Amino acid sequence: MVNRIVEIRSAKLMGGIGAILEIVGGFIPYLDRVLPFAGLILVLIALKKLSDATNTASIFKDFLVSAIFMAIGNVLLLLAGAANLAALFQKGLNLFHLGALFIALILAWVVTIIGAYFLKLSFNSLAGETGVDLFETAGNIIFIGALLAIIFVGVLVVLVGRIVEIIAFFALPDTLEITET
């Protein structure tokens, strides 16, 4: 067995700053679309670095799958809202439009839950490799929030999970000792 020390300070900072941008960036006028996306890219790069440093591919792969599913969920929500808004201005909402909106919302919810599950898997792997159990806590809170999103209180739970994610990134050590066989 060989022990090696790997520097993860840059991944720690990129992940923490990226997680902050994902939350706060949406509230900054004129940059509300760009900053959360930039934050997601920073978190993806940080998790890729951590995945490579620990030789645990699932850290990055599961988060990437999560990001894809969550993006699909957001697109479904956007399309459902736009289609129903267009219908409202053209003919007014009828039972068909409300039914389509309901189905789109349920699909978006299910897809988001799948994304949150993969995020949970990624963060569980990261917690196991780094010893920062806050990642596991963040993943669990975000997953529970996604489940509860159907009753809207879940959005607040997800926000709490994202705040725990920020804390977890900044709780990472600057170096990790990796044991290789």
Topology overview:
Layout: E1 2-7, H1 9-24, H2 34-54, H3 57-90, H4 95-130, H5 134-148, H6 153-171, E2 175-180
Antiparallel strand pairs: 1-2
Please provide a written account of the structure:
The radius of gyration is 19 Å and the shape is elongated. Strands 1-2 form a two-stranded antiparallel sheet. By secondary structure, it is mainly α. The longest helix has 36 residues. It has six helices and two strands; from the N terminus they run E-H-H-H-H-H-H-E. The protein has one domain. Helix 2 runs antiparallel to helix 3 and helix 5 packs antiparallel against helix 6.
Order of helices and strands: EHHHHHHE
Ends: how far apart?
Answer: 4 Å
Number of helices: 6
Q: Mean of the pLDDT scores?
A: 91
Beta-strand residue fraction: 5-15%
| Low-confidence parts | none
Name the structural class.
mainly alpha
- Output the radius of gyration: 19 Å
Counted beta strands: 2
Biggest β-sheet strands, sense, barrel: 2 strands, antiparallel
Number of domains: 1
Helix content: over 70%
Shape field: elongated
Strand order of the largest sheet: 1-2
Describe what is shown at a glance:
About 80% of the residues lie in helices and about 5% in strands.
Quickly list its features.
181 residues; mainly alpha; two-stranded antiparallel ribbon; 2 strands
